[in-house]
Amino acid sequence: MTAPHSPPASAAPRVNPLQRLWLRELGMERLWLRPAPQPQAAPAAMPQVPVPKQESPAATPQVAVSKQESPAPAMPARVGAVPARDAAAPPPASAVRPAGPGPGLRNGPPPKPAPKAEVVTDAAPAVIPVAEAVKNATLDELREQVVACTACGLCGGRRHAVFGHGGQPTRWLVVGEAPGEQEDRQGQPFVGRSGQLLDSMLSAVGMSRERDVFIANVIKCRPPGNRNPKPEEIAACSPYLMRQIALLKPERILVLGRFAAQTLLGTDSTIGSLRGRVHQMKTEEGREIPVIVSYHPAYLLRSPAEKARAWQDLKLASRQL
Asked: Which of 57, 242, 272, 275 is most buried (CB neighbours < 10 A)?
C-alpha cells in the first residue's frame, strides 16, 4: 500500500482567504507564510594539525599608576581673602629666595646659629638719698650738691638754688623758710625788702651777716608763687640744713617763720606758742644749741604791729651769749 505523499518540509502551510485576511490584520502574514529554514548538513571534519606551543613572552612589569584624585570641589571665596596665585604664574620677587645649597645638598654638618647680640643698656645710676650724700661733705662740697640737687620737683622751676651766705666763724645761724622771687633771681638769701628789714634787726643787736651771722633756708629752691613748702619738699631738702648746722657749729639759732620752726623743733605748734622762750636743739654729735623762734620779716612787713614782739625775741637771743 502506497503511503500518502507528504508535502515537502520547505512548503508554507496552506491558509484560506479568510485566514490570510485575519493574519494580515494581525501583522503576522509574512511570519506565518515564510517557509521554515532547511537544516544544513554538518561540514566534514578537518584534520587537526598540531600547532607548536609557543613560550609566553616575559611578563611586562606592571607600573603602578597612582589613581589621580579628583580635585576637591571649589570652595566659595571668603570676603577679603587673597586670591590664589596661578600655579603657572611665576612667583613674586619677594618670595624668591637666593640660590644656594638646600638642606639636602649641604656638605658637612649644619652651621651653628649665630649668637644673638646682647643688648647692653646703660643702667640707671643709683639714686643716693640726700642724707647719705651729704654725710661727709665739706661746706664747699655741700654747696655744689645743693646747686645740682634734683631731689624734689622744685628744681624744675628754679633760676638759682640758694645755698646760704654769711660770716664764719658763725655766732648766729638765721634760718628762714624758702627763697622768694628776688632770692631766686640773685641766688642769695633774704634780699629785697625783707632782707633789708632783717639786716636792720640784726644791726640793732650788734650782729652782721658779713661778720658773724650765717643766713640760710630750710628749702633751697623757690616754691612756685611763693606758696608754702610741701612736707615732701621739706623732707627732701632739710638734710642740707642739718649738715650746714653740723659744719658751721653756731652758738645760737634764730628761726624765722612757722615752717622753719616746726622743721627744726619737730613740732606742729603755732609760732605764737613757740616764740618768747628758748628751745634746745640736740645735734647728732650730742651738742645742744639754743633755738629762739620769731616772726618772718615778710610777715612783719604785712603786720608792722608785730615788730615789737620780734624785737623782744632778738633781745632774748642776745642774752644767751
From this structure: 275
Task: Dump pLDDT digits (tens) for 149-167.
Answer: 999 999 999 999 999 999 9
Q: Is 196 helix (H, G, I), strand (E, B) or coil?
A: helix
Q: Which three cell numbers stand for residue 274?
A: 613757740
Burial 145-182 (b: 16+ CB within 10 A, else e): bbeebebbebeeebebbbbbbbbeebbbbbbbbbbbee
pTM of the model: 0.61
Band the pLDDT of 73: cuts 50, 70, 90.
very low
Measured in residues, the chain has a length of 321
Q: Which of 310, 307, 308, 318 is nearest to 293 (CA)?
A: 310
Closest CA to 290 of 172, 204, 196: 172
Q: How does DSSP classify residue 150?
A: -
Instruction: Tally Cβ neighbours within 10 Å of residue 193.
Output: 12
Residue of 166, 144, 146 lying closest to 154 (CA atoms): 146
Return mean pLDDT, the chain: 77
Instruction: Pick 38 or 311 by higher pLDDT.
Output: 311
Nearest to 173 by CA among 214, 222, 220: 214
Q: What torsion, rounded to 10 degrees, do the Cα atoms 284, 290, 292, 296 define?
A: -40
* Whole-angstrom distance, CA of residue 260 vs CA of residue 298: 14
In this structure, the strands spanning 165-166 and 213-217 are antiparallel
Amino acid symbol at 302:
R
Could you tell me if 188 and 161 are in contact, meaning their C-beta atoms sit under 8 angstroms apart? Answer: no
Closest CA to 246 of 138, 165, 130: 138
222 burial via Cβ count (<10 Å: 0-12, 13-18, 19+)? buried
Taking only the tens place, the pLDDT of each residue in 230-261 is: 999 999 999 999 999 999 999 999 999 999 99
Alpha carbon dihedral 221, 235, 139, 141, in 10-degree steps, equals: -80
